[in-house]
Each structure stands twice: as structure tokens, then as C-alpha cells.
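Hey, I was hoping to borrow your eyes for a little while. No rush at all, and the record is pasted right below:
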Amino acid sequence: MTLAADPKSDYAAHARSRIPWAHWLIGAVLLVLAAQLVHFLVFNPAFEWDVVGRYLFEPSVLRGLGTTVLLAVAAMVVGLLLGTTIAACRLSAFAPLRWAGTAYVTVFRSIPPLVQLIFWFNLGYLLPKISLGLPFGPEFVRWSSNDLITPVTAAVLGLGLNEAAYLAEIVRAGLIGVDSGQRDAARSLGYTGGQTFFRVTLPQAMRVIIPPTGSQFITVLKGTSLVSVIAMADLLYSVQAIYGQTYQVVPLLVVACAWYLVVVSLFSLGQQRLERHFARGERR
């Protein structure tokens, strides 16, 4: 004989989520603040939205945007290649390699990127000539530093070498985060060292590596605005050249902000897809 459950006593089935009054209050405050922000942006004549629309697709602005994106990508490529190498040095059992990797990270994370950009741009002061040859021996090839270190070269070196120090720590943290038992299990199945790294260690490490690496790319993208100090026509330099003639400072800065927002938003969408790809099979 079974007894039917009383529907009124089944609290779990009839439970309803209750929103505290504090949540409603916070929501109302946020709604009011959002409305004030929209009113400020739309009805403040100082923004001069007609000027923003006029210069949003200005050819010089688009060229500056292209330069900004290319610089960010080049700096990230240099940073990833060099940063991965430095991370391997820091994880090496050979002490001099660990010391060299630690020294690199310490030095380049301690010096501001703007200082590094100016330093590389003025490298010709320390090295008038750059040559290849035997150490303390004959030189095979020689170049003038002023011809070799152009604003583009200085920008890629300054941003890329600085970024390598941060990416080295990100990659190292990702590799350390993989449990050593995973590698032991792969070896017991007959995997070689390379197969273990690329099929077992790296896919799991990427779950840790991708989010901060994406944040670093965004940081580099915004940091390209520093190259304007070495007279390189990036996005910020392009809008500065325009408002230097028209004196419409705020609308042109809004143009720059709009393009930065668009590029960062598009990259963030790609980053989310990449994170979902490497998070397959992981419970959250």
C-alpha cells in the first residue's frame, strides 16, 4: 500500500525563487544611471556626433587603424614566440637557463613600455652600426642602425619584447597547472615526449593560457597608442593629426574610442570561441 504525496507538502516542486528587495533597488539604481549616461551621450552638443560620423571612415583614420592592428598582431607574434622560449627556459633543469629567463622577465616587466619604445627608437646612439660576425672577430655584414631601426622596427621591438616577459609567465603558469600524473599516464601508454606535450599537456594548458593571453592582446592593442611618441601613424596619431588642424578634439577622440571598441569586441568574440573549443569535455 502506497500513500500519494501531498502536493501542498512538496516544497521542492513548488518552490519559487524570491528576489530580495535589495536586488530591485540595485537594479533600479543601475537603470537610472544607464538612462543618465545615454542622455549625456545623446543630448550633449559637445560630442558633435555629426563630426564623428564625418571622420569615422576617413581614409587616414582607417590607415591608422590598420597600422594599429598590424602592430598589435606583430607584437603578439614576437611575444608568443619569445615568451614560449623564455617559459621553457624558466622550467628548465639547467640552472643558467632558468637564471637567464628570470633575468629577462624581471628586467622587461620593470621598465615601462613607453621607455622601451623610446630606447629602441634611439638605439643608434649606443650602436651606430649593427653587424653580424664572429664574437670579437671579423664582421661579415654591417648595417647603419639609423637605417635599420625605423619607427616600425622600434615599435615591434618595444612592444614585442615587453609582451614576451608577460606571456612567458602566462605560458609557464599554464604548463605548471597540468598535473604531472597526466604526463606519467601518457608515457605509460607509450607516448613519446613530443606526443605527450602536444596531445596531453598543451591542450590542457591552453585552458589556462588563452584567457590571460587574450587580455594581453587587448592590452597591446591599446598600448600601440604609445607609438605616436615616435611619430608612427597609428590610430591615435591619425586622429591627433586631424584635430591638430580642425581643433575638434573631443569628436576625433570619440572616433578613436569607437574603433578601439569595435576591434576589441570582435577579438573578444573570437577569444570566446577559442575558449569553448579547448574547454570541451571539461565540467564547469
Observations:
- The first strand starts at residue 129 and ends at 133.
